Amino acid sequence: MSTSSKLANGSSGPTPPLTPKSNSLALPLGACIERSRPRLSREQSLLRLQSQLDNMPTPLLKHGLLSRVRREDPELFFSAIQADLVNLAPIVYTPTVGEACQKYSQVYSGPEGLYLSIDDKPQLRQVLSEYAATASHQPQIIVVTDGSRILGLGDLGIGGMGISVGKLNLYVAGGGIDPSGCLPVVLDMGTNTESIRDDPLYLGLRRPRASLEEATSFMDEFMAAAADVFPNTVVQHEDFYSEAAFAFLEKYQDKYRMFNDDIQGTGSVILGGFVAAARRASEASGKPLQDQKVVFLGGGSAAVGVAKEMMTFFRMLGFTEEEARNRFWLIDTKGLITNTRYDVVAGKLASHKEYFIRNDTEGKEFKTLAEVVEYVKPTALVGLSTTYGAFGEDVVRRMADLNPAPIIFPLSNPTSKCELSFEDALNWTDGKVLFASGSPYDPITYKGQLREPGQGVTDSMITGSAIALSEAVDADEASTGLLYPRLTRIRDVSAQVAVGVVRAAQKAGVDTVTSLRDISDDELFAQIKKAQWSPYQNEGVSTSRL
């Protein structure tokens, strides 16, 4: 029995069973399981699916239906997503994907990617090689998680596969990546959530999560094998717990084609929105851009990563690294991170937080967000605390008192973990807020005006994507207070961001397609648009984009 067959049949531990049509758990995102069904036109199939979705009573049931459609008819699935991305993105990704991950083993209906157990470390390279030998396409991008910190929901073990799949769904629908080139991966290294381990339906390893040392050894093998077997593939790390996320990024970012979405990807998107918001806040206050001061609620990997990426804004204004860092104040569960706080003095502060230790508070300690806001008088408030309602009315109203256009970004997701709702933000600031959130909120008519919320590799490439994103907001979007482009333009915006990334790679000298250096931005944009995948494009239909 081959290694992949052993893995598929669960001989290395309780892994998901096979569907009748499958002989491996290594199914790419675009794999199609053939089944007998009535012959319908594309339009009829799409209308039928939309009708079925409309009659589903809960988002989780809609998510389950779409998952089945993706496995059976990927082109129908992505046609539906592209046709109604605004309403279906929250179903295939946050917030619904959070519940789907929590209940992954209970609602499991078939394999969706590559499941790799830490017990299979000696055969890891063989498993990947066997997948490469049988796959119709080699992956362009791998999204890999160990399930240790899924959104704000904690350690969900093998249930993290839902995040890898969900993120790749968006890359196909919004970015135009060919689904056959997308490979979702979950690394099963156990889970520290006892209720999950003890669940009789749980499909993963029933053991405590591997130590960082053991996990690093496994990751070393995975990253090396992935680079050897798929040399042209980008590997995205998704939802690893903070200590591991930073350790892996530092170890691998200069060696492999990889990035960490929570540390770098989220940071670049938030930087793009912050640049747009800071410009508007400066216009409203009459104060220079250099006066921006940012308070973060949250001290995890995402918060530190976003703060470091946002420092680029101040560096572009001519600040030194130290001056830029001093525009940020980070609050974790123990309060403002200062050099006199007891855990800092005792050397017990998590290493990833050390960069933002404040040494200018003269021994004063600040335990609450309200105390820090009163002390700092910030222009911007960013939430990555995973604490629902953490931005209370008193704090939000105080931000509005301090600023004609307060910047408030409650970024925790899913919605059940968000620090502030869009409606409360508008009401408590008299509509003055510049708002972006980590999970979607519906537009609101406030005082007669439709208000829409924003939703929120080399370092220079990450920054290049952020600047391109900030410049993608058109005049109509800016006039309604949007900090990010509308989802209905996501394919054009994705291509525009890609132009920024390519140019940054060229400037850094790490680009591999040198022929792109000599063409204009408009020509590069056109080439990227032409390369974007669309459903049914191989059948001669139009490849027009949303």
TrEMBL record:
GO terms for cellular component: mitochondrion. This is Malic enzyme. A divalent metal cation binds at E238, D239, D262. Pfam families: malic, Malic_M. Residues 70-253 form the Malic enzyme N-terminal domain. InterPro entries: Aminoacid_DH-like_N_sf (IPR046346), Malic_enzyme_CS (IPR015884), Malic_N_dom (IPR012301), Malic_N_dom_sf (IPR037062), Malic_NAD-bd (IPR012302), Malic_OxRdtase (IPR001891), NAD(P)-bd_dom_sf (IPR036291). Residues 1-23 are annotated as: Disordered. The keyword Metal-binding applies. (S)-malate binds at R149, N413. One of its GO terms (molecular function) is malate dehydrogenase (decarboxylating) (NAD+) activity. One of its GO terms (biological process) is malate metabolic process. The active site is at Y93 (proton donor), K167 (proton acceptor). It comes from the Eukaryota. Residues 1-13 have a biased composition (Polar residues). The keyword Nucleus does not apply. Keywords: Metal-binding, Oxidoreductase. Divalent metal cations. Prefers magnesium or manganese.
